[in-house]
Structures are given as structure tokens and as C-alpha cells.
Amino acid sequence: MSEALPGERVEEKSVGDLVGMASQNISNLVRAEMDLAKMELKADAKKAAISSVMFTIAAVMGGIVVILLSISLAYGLIGLGVWHWAAFLIVAVVYVLLAGLLMFIAKRLIKKIEGGKRTRKTLKNDIATLRKRGDGTPELTV
User: Scanning 78, 94, 99, 103, which has its CA 20 to 30 A from the CA of 119?
Assistant: First the structure.
């Protein structure tokens, strides 16, 4: 296939040459767009990886803070005159109650998940429509 040069007239090209040039230009455009998308995705993936590492470090530090605050709470209870074992037991019971509350809330939220109700309905309608067309019925509903 030939390419149009800057001084060349397009009218002098045959239809086959013009179609060949157009398909080559489309191929080059698609290839360039794919390369651009790859470069952008690589940059985004790098940013996402760095961000996830930072979130992980922050979560670990938050966990350490919760442990230290728990110990502080227990020693605060000891300072108020509660036995050592009872103070740490009270802190543990508070965390067990908090965990139970979070599990209860999560369970209620999970029960509210509908699971793509509208998608299932439209897929069933689409399949039914395709079956009708397969039987020779030219009726299509939108």
C-alpha cells in the first residue's frame, strides 16, 4: 500500500489505495490509543500500589494505637481502684461487645443486598426476546 505524500494529490489515488491508506491510518490510531492506555494504566497502577502500602502502614499504626489506648484504659481503671485482672477483663469485655455490635450491623447490611435484581430481570427479558426471535416471530421489544 502506498501512502499519500505531502505534495501528492489524493484524487490521483485509486479507491483500493485510498481504502488501504484509511485502514492503515485506523490501525495506527488504534495502536497509538492502546499504547497510551497502557502507559496511563501503568502510572495508575504504580500510584495505587504506593497508596495501598501507605494505607496498610496507617492501619498497622492504628492497630498499635488501639492496643496502647486499651492498656491505658486498663491502667486507668486500676488507678480508680479496680483489681488488675478485673480492669483488663473489663477492657476485653468492652471490645467483645463492640465486635458483637459491628457483626450485628454487618449482618443487617448483608441481608439488604439485592444481588442485581434489575440486571437479572433485564437478562431474563433479553433471553425471552431472543427465544421469540429464534421461533420465527419477528417481534422485538425495546
Answer: 103
Q: What does the chain come to in residues?
A: 142
Residue 74 makes CB contacts below 8 A (sequence gap 6+) with 87, 88, 90, 91
What is the DSSP track for 58-109? HHHHHHHHHHHHHHHHHHHHHHTT--HHHHHHHHHHHHHHHHHHHHHHHHHH
Those residues whose C-beta lies under 8 Å from the C-beta of residue 139, and which sit 6 or more positions away, are 132, 133
Query: What pLDDT is stored for residue 1 in this prediction?
Result: 47
Measured CA to CA, the distance from residue 56 to residue 63 in angstroms comes to 11
pLDDT bracket for residue 124 (50, 70, 90) = confident
d(CA 43, CA 32): 17
Cell of 122: 433485564
- CA-based nearest residue to 74, from 59, 88, 95: 88
User: What percent of the chain has pLDDT above 90?
Assistant: 45
